[in-house]
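BUG: 3D viewer hangs when loading the predicted structure for this chain

Environment: internal workstation, default settings.
Expected: structure renders.
Actual: progress bar stalls at 90%.

Input used:
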Amino acid sequence: MNTDAPVNREGPRLIGVPDALARTGLGRTTLYRLVTEGQLQPVKVGRRTLFVVAELDAWIADLPRAAR
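Structure tokens produced before the viewer hung:
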């Protein structure tokens, strides 16, 4: 085992659709609409659709306060 490898204590950097839904509070249809509109950029790994956690958090932070 390589003990020199950094340990990720912040959690995953990529999450799947179910976790993205839970993290954002959005429904599946809305999440995919935002992807279609280009507001969110998923990453495809094989058949999986993943989201970069930092990008989801940045998108949430950029929402107008009145819409929160």
